[in-house]
Design a protein that fits this description.
Elements: E1 4-5, H1 6-12, H2 18-26, E2 30-32, E3 42-43, E4 49-51, E5 54-56, E6 65-70, H3 86-90, E7 97-99, E8 107-113, H4 119-123, E9 131-137, H5 143-151, E10 154-155, E11 158-159, E12 164-169, E13 172-177, H6 184-191, E14 196-204, E15 207-208, E16 217-219, H7 222-232
């Protein structure tokens, strides 16, 4: 069998991110055949591997893909010590983790999964995977403002990629990005002397928020899942 690093194995099993896996291994929360391994150890998946006492990799469940309507105030972190963290809020009976983030003051669509291998495929900017938002600002949405958003805005010493932006009302616009830098839309607005009052993500690729109530989730439909995986050229392990 092909060997892989233990941290990658844990990611592929949907247990956690690679960084979190390294931290858990270092902290002794992971065992391989009953012993605590060193960082960098390789496995082939036939071993008995546990994470926080829960066996992973054997008799694993079907890959899961969830759409969740994150309310304002919920934090996109898997840290169990963080109050109002998204994982404990959803309280799904299997290990899942969120794909990307929305800041605590934002709401809308977050995808969650137990398929670790799909995360980077969705998030990387070079994949040109669209994410659509509805934004309200205090000031007027002018034609010059929309044009500036479309052309790219200098934030943190970096010019954002060209994007789609459409005026929807005197103080509201829709914007579609193919990148996801930290607080990107808020920083773009700030750079253009606008103040965001609300921000909601309504779409990730082919997955739409639609009528999912705040704080609720649903599994992707077979059609949504098939389109998503085909677009990403991804076959679940």
């Amino acid at each position: 069998m092909e060997l892989m690093r233990l941290n990658k194995f844990l990611v592929d099993q949907g247990v956690c991110s690679r960084r979190a896996a390294d931290r858990a291994i270092t902290e002794g929360r992971v065992t391989v055949n009953g012993t605590k391994p060193e960082l960098g150890v390789k496995v082939d998946g036939s071993e008995t591997i546990s994470f926080d006492g829960v066996i992973v990799g054997q008799n694993r469940s079907k890959r899961l893909y969830l759409a969740y309507h994150k309310p304002v105030g919920i934090i996109c972190t898997s840290d169990p010590l963080a109050k109002d963290n998204i994982i404990e809020t959803i309280n799904y009976p299997e290990r899942i983790f969120h794909i990307g983030r929305l800041d605590v003051a934002s709401s809308g669509l977050i995808l969650l999964t137990n398929d670790g291998a799909i995360v980077n495929k969705i998030l990387r900017a070079e994949g040109k995977n669209q994410k659509e938002y509805i934004v309200r600002i205090q000031e007027d949405v002018t034609d010059d403002f929309i044009t500036a958003l479309r052309d790219g805005v200098l934030i943190d010493g970096y010019k954002t990629l060209p994007c789609k932006a459409v005026k929807m009302g005197p103080n509201m616009f829709a914007i579609t990005l193919v990148e996801g830098r930290n607080r990107q839309i808020r920083k773009m607005c700030e750079a253009l002397h606008r103040t965001v009052t609300s921000l909601k993500r309504i779409r990730v690729m082919n997955i739409k928020l639609d009528d999912i109530p705040p704080g609720k989730w649903r599994l992707l439909t077979p059609e949504e899942e098939s389109t998503l995986l085909t677009t990403l050229n991804h076959t679940p392990a």
